[in-house]
Design goal:
Length: about 600
């Protein structure tokens, strides 16, 4: 981070402008609009259409076991040329394959054969449903691919209904799903292999008689029709961590307007940046993950397309695979790299396991899974070299450990092999021991060694923003394993941030804590609050002590006021983290409106 830049911009804030721009979010509180339209009016214009469509299709709360699926014929990445219409008539739109990945909360669904689809008239739609990943604890489905055919004219929208659970009667011929809790592309099984004769069927799970596999119904994430679910569904599924839909964020509306404005007005534009091994970073802090977090919180096709494009761009431009495609590393690593040579620190922070996992869980694209597994295998084979030499590279800075743990957690989420779990648990063991070696609660290390230009003389301290990344990784690990040690580690880290790493005015965190040559006791880095306050949200989620949310909210207010999102790096670091904090605080007890206020100003 450019510390001088942070210090010189500390006074150049315009909170009043942000609040005025956020005013539409408060329109619904006036009580003069029908409830359905009030929801749409308080969201930004680009989101209103999808909210109104969902509301129109479902004026009453949905019955259990169903969710509206919005189809948008926006052209996608492979739209055919418009057909010429005959004089005096109109050509019917051609059917195309539509696919989406439907996430489910832990324990919600165990058998993909219990997924069904109905069109806007209530007619059953033939489909293929395939488990993509399971929650390692309990083995229920985490995400399922749903593929079907639909015909929409360019620009047209339609509302389908996705149903799940035991149906009243057997599904229609042509509906096909792979067996329960067994993604067809788990190790040792071909990705689209038909279910073998004699595959056991779960008791009470009806299967359409004579159903056959339609080989054409494969993932089509960039087809001319996008299919998206309501943001409330994505949030409840926890598929990519805790979330709060943007339309429900009444506590920090300035964040919602500011983060969107930052992306739209970035100069040069976000997607104009190329691959960089130094200087400006396009995907640093995991651009695909940040953009998918944005999509999940809004649920519209345009944001889906943007996140999807970034994920594909990363794979095509920033990953280098081994000839057998078993290993993948970032292109900034030396070309002659092998697992016998430790990956560089710069490479570790550019291997984006979370973003590629998001892409697979939300699209079913096998290329995303290939990237996750190849990066994970490269890192797993490299661990002994990274940690066994003269220096433990993963404990040199908190973010080195964080990125490594994120990559392995993403790998284990898709391929829960014992050797991957052993490697992941080994990193957790090292992290626990690392914190216990000091009394502060920080992950103490030599600050000068990490970046001499930022600390001329350490000797030992910690980095709040890097520690926040490590807590994020620990929470990913905890979600997959339930390791009880994480609770104490996160609570101690939160205590250190609140008591020792905070600036004396209590509006920001010291850029570095423990540096002998610079106390960093100023609020010039308050924009990093948005990256750091999720630690307090995680501490609340694990301890249920609401004090952590009160602490987090006060620092979040300063962070939103100081938000700096003028380059991809800074936009990514704010977007990837703060939505997760909002998801943690949404777990406060009581009705949503009460929860929004309970830790307020």
């Amino acid at each position: 981070m450019d510390v001088q830049r942070a210090r010189t911009r500390a006074g150049a804030r315009r909170p009043l402008v942000a609040l005025l721009l956020a005013a539409p979010l408060f329109w619904a509180s006036c009580g003069r609009l029908p409830a359905r339209m009030a929801v749409a009016r308080r969201a930004e214009p680009s989101v209103r259409a999808v909210l109104e469509a969902h509301a129109a299709a479902r004026p009453a709360p949905p019955r259990a076991g169903s969710v509206p699926l919005l189809l948008v014929a926006d052209g996608g990445g492979s739209a055919p040329a418009p057909e010429k219409r005959p004089p005096g008539g109109s050509a019917a739109p051609a059917e195309v394959v539509v696919s989406t990945a439907v996430p489910f909360a832990p324990g919600e669904l165990r058998d993909a054969r219990l997924i069904r689809l109905r069109d806007g008239r209530g007619a059953a739609v033939p489909l293929r449903a395939k488990p993509l990943a399971v929650w390692p604890q309990g083995r229920s489905i985490r995400s399922a691919l749903v593929a079907f055919r639909a015909a929409l004219s360019p620009g047209e929208r339609a509302i389908y209904t996705l149903e799940y659970g035991a149906p009243a009667s057997p599904g229609p011929p042509g509906q096909r799903a792979d067996p329960p809790g067994q993604p067809a592309d788990l190790p040792g099984q071909r990705a689209d292999a038909p279910v073998a004769q004699g595959t056991p069927v779960a008791q009470g799970a009806p299967v359409a008689p004579g159903a056959t596999l339609d080989e054409a119904l494969l993932p089509n994430p960039d087809g001319p029709i996008a299919a998206v679910l309501p943001p409330s569904w994505y949030a409840a599924s926890q598929v990519c961590g805790p979330q709060l839909p943007a339309m429900d964020d009444r506590r920090f509306p300035a964040f919602e307007t500011g983060i969107e404005r930052g992306l739209a007005r970035m100069t040069p534009a976000y997607d104009s940046y190329g691959v960089s091994c130094s200087g400006a970073h396009r995907t640093y802090y995991d651009g695909p993950h940040a953009l998918y977090q944005r999509f999940l919180r809004n649920g519209d096709a345009a944001r889906y397309r943007r996140a999807r494009a970034e994920a594909a761009w990363y794979r095509q431009n920033e990953l280098r695979f081994s000839p057998d495609r078993r290993l993948a590393i970032h292109v900034c690593e030396k070309e002659d790299w092998s697992p016998a040579r430790p990956l560089s620190w710069h490479t570790l922070r550019r291997m984006l396991g979370q973003g590629m996992l998001d892409d697979y869980l939300l699209t079913g694209d096998p290329a995303a899974k290939e990237a996750v597994l190849a990066m994970g295998e490269a890192l797993r084979l490299n661990l002994a070299t990274l940690t066994g030499g003269k220096e433990d590279a993963l404990r040199a800075t908190e973010r080195n450990m964080a990125w490594a743990m994120m990559t392995l957690a993403s790998t284990y989420a898709l391929e829960p092999r014992p050797d991957v779990l052993a490697a992941l648990r080994g990193l957790a063991d090292r992290t626990v021991a690392w914190q216990q070696q000091g009394a502060s609660g920080a992950f103490e290390h030599d600050l000068h060694r990490a970046d001499p230009s930022e600390c001329e003389r350490g000797p030992r301290g910690g980095s709040p923003f890097m520690s926040a990344l490590l807590v994020d990784a620990l929470m990913e690990y905890h979600a997959l394993t339930g390791d009880p040690r994480v609770r104490n580690v996160v609570a101690r880290a939160a205590g250190w941030l609140e008591e020792r790493a905070i600036t004396s005015d209590r509006r920001a965190f010291r850029y570095l804590w423990g540096c002998e040559t610079d106390a960093y006791d100023d609020s010039g880095t308050a924009d990093l609050n948005l990256l750091i306050v999720p630690v307090f949200g995680a501490a609340y989620a694990l301890t249920r002590d609401p004090r952590w949310i009160a602490v987090g909210d006060a620092l979040a207010d300063a962070g939103v006021e100081a938000m700096w999102v003028k380059q991809p790096k800074h936009w990514n670091q704010a977007m990837r983290a703060f939505g997760r904090y909002l998801g943690y605080r949404a777990q406060l007890p009581g009705p949503p409106a009460v929860a929004q206020r309970s830790a307020g100003r």
